From TrEMBL:
Listed name of the protein: Protease HtpX homolog
Keyword Translocase attributed: no
Record's GO cellular component terms: plasma membrane
Cellular localization per UniProt: Cell membrane
Keywords: Cell membrane, Hydrolase, Membrane, Metal-binding, Metalloprotease, Protease, Transmembrane, Transmembrane helix, Zinc
Xref: Pfam families: Peptidase_M48
Entry's Gene Ontology molecular function annotations: metalloendopeptidase activity; zinc ion binding
Similarity-based family: Belongs to the peptidase M48B family.
Species assigned in the record: Achromobacter veterisilvae
Cofactors demanded by this protein: Zn(2+)
EC number(s) given by UniProt: 3.4.24.-
Membrane spanning stretches: 5-26, 38-59, 159-181, 196-218
Active site (UniProt): 147
Length: 293
C-alpha cells in the first residue's frame, strides 16, 4: 500500500506541475466562452495523465538503487561465492525467460526482494541480505525466479499503462466536476473562479485515492502471475511454495515506499482493496492449483 500511495502522490505532483506549466504556456484551451471543450480537455488529460506514469517508469531503476542503497554486483568479478551464485542464478533464469540479463544487486535489510526497470532487457533484480540469510539456496532461487517473471511479464510497463489511464480519468473528471461546481454552486458565469481550482485540487486527491484501488488490484494479480512464473522457470511449484511459507513466518522487510509493490511480499494495507500483495495463504493456495509446464 505504501508504494501505491507514493506512486499516486508522485503522479499527482507531476500532474499539478504539468497543469500549471501548460496553463502558463497557454496550452490548456479546454475552457471556452461556450463552456468546456471536452475533446481538448481529453487531450490535455492524456498528456498530463501519462507523463507522470512514464516519468515514474523511466526513473524506477536509478531510484531503486538510490533509495535502497543496493550495491550492483559485477558479473565479471564477484567478490565471493555467494555473489557469484546470485549473478549466475539470475542470469540462468533470465535466459530461460527469454529476456536480457538484468543487473543483480544486494541491499541491507530484512527479508525481501524486488525487480524494476523500464525495459525487459535493461532491468534490475535486487535481494536483501535478510532474505539471503534466512532461506535455502533453492528458496532464494524461487524468489529470484518470481522477480524475473515480473520482468518477463512486462509488469512495470503494464502498471505504467494502467496508471496512465487512471491518471487521465482523474485529470478529466476533476476538471469536469470543478467546472460544474464553479458554475452551479458558486454561480460564476464569467471565466473560472477560485471554486474551480479548489474543487479540481480536492477532486484530484479523492479520485487519485479511488484510482489507487484499481492499481492495487492489478498489483495483486501480477503477484499471482509472478508466483506461477517462478514455478514455470524452476520446473516445480514446491520451491516457491516453501519460500512463501517461510516468508509468511517472517517479518517482511521494509522497502522504500516507492518500491514496496515491486517486492516479493508486503505488509498489506488498512483495507484489503488497497493492498499491493495478496495474503500469503491465498498465494500458496493459488500456486498449489497452478499448472507447471
Amino acid at each position: 500500500m505504501k508504494r501505491i500511495i507514493l506512486f499516486v502522490i508522485t503522479n499527482l505532483a507531476v500532474m499539478l506541475v504539468l497543469s500549471a506549466t501548460l496553463r502558463i504556456l497557454g496550452v490548456d484551451r479546454y475552457i471556452t466562452a461556450n463552456g468546456l471543450n471536452l475533446n481538448a480537455l481529453l487531450i490535455f488529460s492524456l498528456v498530463v495523465g501519462f507523463t507522470g506514469a512514464i516519468i515514474s517508469l523511466l526513473i524506477s531503476k536509478p531510484m531503486a538503487k538510490w533509495s535502497t542503497g543496493a550495491q550492483v554486483l559485477d558479473p565479471n568479478s564477484p567478490r565471493n561465492q555467494r555473489e557469484a551464485w546470485l549473478v549466475d542464478t539470475v542470469h540462468q533464469l533470465a535466459d530461460r525467460a527469454g529476456i536480457g540479463r538484468p543487473e543483480v544487486a544486494i541491499y541491507e535489510g530484512a527479508p525481501n526482494a524486488f525487480a524494476t526497470g523500464a525495459f525487459k532487457n535493461d532491468s534490475l533484480v535486487a535481494v536483501s541480505t535478510g532474505l539471503l540469510e534466512s532461506m535455502s539456496e533453492e528458496e532464494v532461487a524461487a524468489v529470484l525466479a518470481h522477480e524475473v517473471a515480473h520482468i518477463a511479464n512486462g509488469d512495470m510497463i503494464t502498471l505504467t499503462l494502467i496508471q496512465g489511464v487512471v491518471n487521465t480519468f482523474v485529470v478529466f473528471l476533476a476538471r469536469v466536476v470543478g467546472y460544474f461546481i464553479d458554475r452551479v454552486v458558486f454561480k460564476n458565469e464569467r471565466g473560472i473562479g477560485p471554486g474551480y481550482y479548489v474543487t479540481v485540487l480536492v477532486c484530484e486527491i479523492i479520485f487519485g485515492i479511488l484510482a489507487s484501488i484499481i492499481v492495487a488490484w492489478f498489483s495483486r494479480q501480477r503477484e499471482y502471475r509472478a508466483d506461477a512464473g517462478s514455478a514455470h522457470l524452476m520446473g516445480a511449484r514446491e520451491p516457491m511454495i516453501r519460500a512463501l511459507a517461510r516468508l509468511g513466518g517472517l517479518e517482511p522487510g521494509e522497502l522504500p515506499r516507492s518500491f514496496e509493490a515491486s517486492g516479493i511480499t508486503g505488509k498489506g494495507g488498512i483495507a484489503a482493496m488497497f493492498a499491493s500483495h495478496p495474503p500469503i495463504p491465498a498465494r500458496i493456495a493459488a500456486l498449489q492449483h497452478a499448472k507447471v509446464i
